[in-house]
Amino acid sequence: MAMVLALGIFFRCTHLDQKVYWRDEAFTSLRVSGFTVADVRQQLFDGHEIGKADLQLYQQLNAAKSWLDTVQSLVVEDSQHPPLYYLLARGWMQCFGSSVTAIRSLSALLGLLVLPSLYWLCLELFESALISGLAIALVAVSPFHILFAQEAREFVLWTVTTLLSSATLLRAMRVQKRLWWYLYPVVTVLGLYTFPLSGLVLLGHGLYVAVLEGWRLSKAMIAFLLAALAGLFAFLPWLLVMLNQAAKIHATTGWATVKTNPFLRLLETAFNTSRLFLDVDFGWYNPFTYIIPPLIGLLGYALYAFCRQAPLRVKLFILTLAGANAFTLMLLDLLLGGLRSTVPRYLIPYNLGIQLAVAYVLAAKMSHPHKRSQQWQQVTIVLVALGIISGASSWSAESWWHKYDNAYLPPISRMVNQAPQPLLLSDNVSDRSVGNLLSLSHRLSDHVRLRLATEAATLEPPDIRHQVFLLRPSDTLVSKLQQGKTYQLTQVYRLIQFWRRDRLPDSKA
Questions:
Q1: pTM
Q2: Which residues of the chain carry a pLDDT beneath 50?
Q3: Domain boundaries, the chain
């Protein structure tokens, strides 16, 4: 156990600057620093030549920007993200600086807090040191939790608040003392001000209490309702902000409403669930790829055995915690279209529920006095080993699946940095494009120059001495640079729309 914990800590706290600081993390720095995307467009997209330092200026604390500016940035442009994590990150940056390592170290610390929070929840739920220890071992080396413990976003804090609110509820239900019912809405508010989907955690808790109390207005039910209403009332100010910015939120999260095949969504959700235990560079050449089907089968059996064997109180709590999260998102996808239920970071309560159920089944099988108990010990060792292998696989990687199209930024930056007198052009002012540029700035060399504009017409033709690159250019800019017989444009990475301008072999200087 000590070795597993040590490896979990090692994977979370080292190589913090190794993976690409991707678009959403760059937006974290932007919001924390009190700037907006509109600020970047207004100040930098005017066609004049800039360097990477100009982009990084908007990702660093500035004496002219206050804590209120941090909140205001979220209010006007990104209210789907409540301010708690961003204010916490601002205080952290004031103490330790604005570097990638500094801001990610906050997530690493929160990732370590997941483990004692999980242990407390397990003791309240299972009253078993064995199950608690197994759950800690599985989560300590879980590749999913390791990845998000190294990312400058609020999801690891959401994991902590989910665990703490769940443990506080179980404690309040068990001891029936006012102190714990007073603490529950406090932790619930922290969760809501971390991520709005904490409302689904509250829904799961409500279903648990209601079913356990037989849908009666018992003393425990009344206490829960009062605590839940207190928590929701405290979140009301930000909820009103979100309602006021509903159109902006819809535009920002439009990618999650793309219609997809329900069967494919189900397969993707199952695949993402397996990533809780195994996450390597999958491909036909990789033998670990062929472990995925039996691993999903094992998880399915574990959930079946859990539903059959676990005590009602334990079974009910985990199923409501995981189900309220996963089934609600699935229902929204079915009714409205979209792929919310396939986004792993939206399914943290579900993921925790799966891992708790697996820990229970493993402990029950290992403790049972029959010949197969040794086989289940081996299964446990294999699951932990798969997590360690996954952590080692992603530990030194420049990118991973959760960086999406920004996985191309490291090779792009190397190509640009190695070019003689490189010049990067872009006339795309979308949030995605601005985020890509902010992210890319962390990997560019000092000699790289950029020209950004809101329209291709305002960009002067590049000097002949420059090696020119384009990031998400408009059709107008592409056509403008393809004129004549001197140069040709090559699309190097289609997904992120990165182009390179090359001189034709028969052209004259």
A1: 0.95
A2: 509
A3: 2-17+99-397, 406-503
